[in-house]
Amino acid sequence: MKKVLVINANPKRASLCKSLAEEYVAAATGKHEVQQIDIRDLNFELSLNDGYDKTVALEPDLVDFQSKIKWAEHARRLKVSMSQRWF
Prior knowledge:
With 87 residues, the chain is α/β, with parallel strands linked by helices. The protein is built from 2 helices and 3 strands.
């Protein structure tokens, strides 16, 4: 059994990306260990107020995000669903 992490990076609650991520999770569950992250649900500071001049500890959601990426064992087990904007 492989460890698969599915990341939905679309900020909308209802989107094609969300649907694709959920379908992937449904198809992979039972065959693999699967975890999913919806980035929009993470609670963390979006702005580096001090830029890179000051080291800031990661918020708990980001620490959990890192641990799930490590859990996935390999980049080939990471599935990211996000929209592409063309201008």
